[in-house]
Amino acid sequence: MKKLLVASNNDGKLRELLPILSPLPVEVLTPRDVGLKLDVAETGATYSENAQLKAEAFARASGLLTLADDSGLEVEVLGGAPGVYSARYAGEGATDADRRKKLVEAVRVFPAPRAARFRCVIAIATWPENLNFFEGSCEGEIVLEERGRGGFGYDPIFFLPERGATMAELPETVKNQISHRARAAQAAFPFLKNLLAD
């Protein structure tokens, strides 16, 4: 069976991506599975650039078909921030809770609804120099009170009006169908299935 390396050291992201990718006819591997320890600096100005940096680095190091993603939260009243800096929004060493707290304080002065979207770009390296990109997004609103225990990152304050719930309140099976990461993966599926059929 062919192998696909998911280029991430983020346990929350891996917990989401592995079930999403499970329908593919491929053995999905994490860096831990192949004994790979890489810390790729996300110096890109866009999600695509950061996804590319990770996909290329892990593909070179492993020699495997590699999938990497970069994603962020874009809040309209903040001009699209934190965007590509979502993971670093509250500074180095900050926790998910620190980042949520900073974001809530930044949007508190604005009236509801505080429109926002999660965006994700997946890069697939069939070899380090050969990349394909796929994108997904999920629309919602920022709420001031955290709700739910699922997910990770900004999920407890990202509210989906059509579901009447935050992303953190959704069952994992539902989140893995509608999230920005799921939609980017779904966009990549035809390409991957074709590639894996060769």
Rg, Cα atoms, Å = 17 Å
CATH-derived topology = Maf protein
Number of helices: 5
Give the tally of β-strands.
Answer: 7
Supply the CATH architecture. Alpha-Beta Complex
Count of domain modules? 1
- Biggest sheet features: 7 strands, mixed
- Helix/strand class: alpha/beta
Query: Mean pLDDT across all residues, rounded?
Result: 95
Structure in words:
The chain is an alpha/beta fold and 198 residues long. The N and C termini lie close together (12 Å). The chain has five helices and seven strands; from the N terminus they run βαβαβαββββαα. The relative contact order is 0.16. A hairpin with a 4-residue loop joins strand 6 and strand 7. Helix content is 32%, strand content 25%. Strands 2-1-3-4-5-6-7 form a seven-stranded mixed sheet. The mean pLDDT is 95. The chain has helices at residues 11-21, 47-62, 96-107, 172-178, 180-197; strands spanning 3-6, 27-29, 65-75, 114-127, 130-142, 158-160, 165-166. The protein has one domain (3-197): Maf protein (Alpha-Beta Complex). Helix 1 packs across helix 5 and helix 4 crosses helix 5. The protein is globular and about 55 Å long.
Summarize the structure.
The protein has helices at 11-21, 47-62, 96-107, 172-178, 180-197; strands at 3-6, 27-29, 65-75, 114-127, 130-142, 158-160, 165-166.
